[in-house]
């Protein structure tokens, strides 16, 4: 374990959710108290998660029910980041995503357009993906719509085995339409840059805390963030700190132990 250098005083924190704040469906011990301590010290933070199955409102309710009280406005998902991008450019969007993320786009003020969109937003469609839908997306792209993908993951582990994820679909459309997708979702830089913009700070003033040495930590440093902090919970396995470049700036046993070191105060759940 390495201690955080004295030079490292992030203005704000980006915090991964799965494996950092939660593990196996419950809060990581001390994580609720660590979030409370950040609020008390008025240290700005956002939760950065790759989930595309739920809206930020649904995520906020789920985390709050686990004792991790957080407002929806403090959560950034690939859908939230993409919605900010679309709204900033005034793009009308065709949503090829699960209905559950639709609110994220409407809340951001994105105008939806079925016939002549400026962009197609591609998510994990599951059983809603039909050949008709595939061709409809292809035709929008051939007509000049920008392809926005909510992640680059090729497949995920469904209960009955590996299942096609959004990254594989994006590759399909890149091949079919001869376009390049703009990808929101870790490890791509866009989501980190949108998070910095939401917080109103430069990326270099941010530290990212995650349990994935590649997708959270190395990716954040490559995106220009000031520091990547690896925690040894969730998907962490011994040796991860040496497997990826850039290496973590610091490694801590858990999120609460990092916050305790950052704030110089013990963190314990009541
Ligand atoms: Mg994680």
> Order of strands side by side in the largest beta sheet?
5-4-1-12-13-14
| Average of per-residue pLDDT values | 93
| Helix fraction bin | 25-40%
| Ligand set | magnesium ion
Characterization of this structure:
It is a single chain. The chain has 270 residues and is of the alpha/beta class. The protein folds into two domains: 12-50 and 188-263, HAD superfamily/HAD-like (Rossmann fold), CATH 3.40.50.1000; 90-183, Rossmann fold, CATH 3.40.50. It is built from ten helices and 14 strands. A six-stranded parallel sheet has the order 5-4-1-12-13-14. β12 (206-210), α8 (213-222) and β13 (227-231) form a beta-alpha-beta unit. The longest helix is centred in the first third of the chain and has 12 residues, at 78-89. The radius of gyration is 19 Å and the shape is globular. It starts with 11 loop residues before the first strand and ends in a 7-residue tail after the last helix. Residues 16, 18-20, 210-212, 234 line the site of magnesium ion.
């Amino acid at each position: 374990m390495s201690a955080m250098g004295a030079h490292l005083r992030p203005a704000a924190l980006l915090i991964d959710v799965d494996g950092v704040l939660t593990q196996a469906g419950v809060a990581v011990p001390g994580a609720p108290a660590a979030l409370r301590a950040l609020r008390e010290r008025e240290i700005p933070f956002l939760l950065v998660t790759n989930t595309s199955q739920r809206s930020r409102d649904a995520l906020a309710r789920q985390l709050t029910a686990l004792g991790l009280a957080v407002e929806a406005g403090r959560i950034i998902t690939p859908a939230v980041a993409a919605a900010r991008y679309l709204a900033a450019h005034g793009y009308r969007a065709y949503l090829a995503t699960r209905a559950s993320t639709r609110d994220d786009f409407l809340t951001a003020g994105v105008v939806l357009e079925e016939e002549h969109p400026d962009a197609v937003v591609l998510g994990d469609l599951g059983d809603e993906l039909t050949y008709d839908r595939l061709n409809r997306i292809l035709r929008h792209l051939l007509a000049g719509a920008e392809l926005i993908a909510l992640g680059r993951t090729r497949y995920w582990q469904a209960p009955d085995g590996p299942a096609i994820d959004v990254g594989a679909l994006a590759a399909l459309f890149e091949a079919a339409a001869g376009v390049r997708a703009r990808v929101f979702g870790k490890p791509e830089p866009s989501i980190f840059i949108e998070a910095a913009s939401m917080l109103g700070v430069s990326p270099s003033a941010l530290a990212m805390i995650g349990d994935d040495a590649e997708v959270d930590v190395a990716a954040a440093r490559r995106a220009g963030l000031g520091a990547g902090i690896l925690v040894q919970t969730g998907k962490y396995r011994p040796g991860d700190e040496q497997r990826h470049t850039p290496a973590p700036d610091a490694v801590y046993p858990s999120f609460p132990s990092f916050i305790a070191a950052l704030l110089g105060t013990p963190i314990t759940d009541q």
